[in-house]
Design goal:
Layout lengths: L19 H22 L3 H75 L7 E9 L7 E4 L12 E3 L4 E8 L4 E5 L6 E6 L5 E6 L6 E7 L9 E4 L11 E9 L6 E8 L8 E5 L2 H49 L2
Antiparallel strand pairs: 1-2, 1-12, 2-5, 3-4, 3-12, 4-5, 6-7, 6-9, 7-8, 8-11, 9-10, 10-11
């Protein structure tokens, strides 16, 4: 088969019609015609509306990720605002609860102070108000430290009370503070009187530091739970009639001749803050005797002065009468 010259014409798929410039001019003219026609006669309005109606679902479908992202952003921002508002509300609630607790604490403290002020006129001994600073660090004792010391007139052995009853006794005195041994301490002891039976006994702090007990009490003694124990005033330290403790349990066993009696102090030893330090009864009696002696001396001095004045007045009267008599006897 003879070979001819090669065919240099492009295949039908790549054949081109009009030139690109001609097509550009045609499209530009068509676009200009459509713009003028649409502006003048609105010929493309129905086509545009139909095309918009057909494309609307596709537009919504394509915009759904954007809407979802915006909705998620709004939800996240709303959640953050809600959490911030909740945190602020919780903080305000905590502050209000703190203020309420502080107000309740101040109200209770004012009530205790009023009770102490009302108690002070009923006491026959001198008293000094004090505040509990802290509890002693010794784990084997029940002691507290108050903010009054020897400079303020506190003496060792002074009773310490509050509005409920006896708390303990001053055992150590420093210059600006003092140490008070509470009634529940294992080394504490106080003479008491059963207000129901008028029976006297001695109450001691329990070995575990959680209350008090009566020791060496006969098993057939007349005592029962609920009996109130008060100070007897026989020790020369505590004034008589101050509430001390209440009987909580009485155990009578057949194998011993003594009853086991447990007491609970009437004063709340763990929550006390303001106290009164009393002058010891002996010191009070001594001061009372000294005051009575001073008053007696003043009364004796006043009586002596009155007698001297009376004698001087009588002597002056007698002299006046004698002078009158002598002047009347002369010619």
């Amino acid at each position: 088969m003879p070979l001819g010259p090669p065919d240099r014409n492009p295949p039908p798929f790549f054949r081109q019609g009009a030139s690109a410039q001609a097509r550009l001019v045609l499209c530009a003219a068509l676009a200009l015609f459509l713009m003028v026609a649409d502006a003048r006669f609105h010929v493309v309005e129905p086509a545009r509306a139909a095309l918009a109606l057909v494309l609307h679902p596709f537009q919504r479908l394509l915009l759904s990720p954007v809407d979802a992202w915006e909705s998620f952003g709004d939800y996240r921002r709303g959640t953050e605002r809600a959490m911030a508002a909740e945190a602020l509300a919780r903080q305000q609630l905590v502050e209000q609860a703190e203020r309420l607790a502080r107000a309740a604490q101040l109200q209770a403290e004012n009530q205790r102070l009023r009770s102490l002020l009302e108690l002070r006129p009923a006491l026959e001994v001198a008293s000094l108000s004090a505040e509990v600073l802290y509890e002693a660090a010794d784990p084997y004792s029940r002691r507290v430290v108050i903010d009054r010391g020897s400079r303020h007139g506190v003496q060792a052995g002074s009773p310490v009370i509050n509005d409920a009853g006896v708390l303990g006794q001053v055992t150590r005195v420093y210059t600006l503070s003092a140490e008070v041994t509470l009634l529940s301490d294992k080394d504490a002891a106080i003479p008491v009187l059963n207000t129901r039976t008028q029976a006297r006994n001695a109450a001691f702090g329990s070995s575990d530091g959680n209350g008090m007990e009566l020791r060496f009490l006969a098993a057939n003694a007349d005592i029962k739970p609920g009996d109130l124990m008060s100070t007897s005033g026989l020790d020369g330290v505590y004034p008589s009639g101050l509430p001390v403790a209440k009987v909580t349990s009485v155990e009578r066993r057949g194998d011993t001749s003594f009853a086991s009696v447990r007491l609970q102090p009437v004063a709340q030893l763990d929550s006390v803050r303001h106290v009164l330090v009393l002058q010891p009864q002996e010191q009070h009696a001594k001061a009372k005797a000294e005051a009575a002696a001073v008053l007696a001396a003043e009364a004796a001095s006043a009586a002596s002065l009155k007698a001297q004045r009376k004698a001087a007045a009588a002597e002056a009267k007698a002299e006046a009468k004698a002078d009158a008599k002598n002047s009347g006897g002369q010619p």
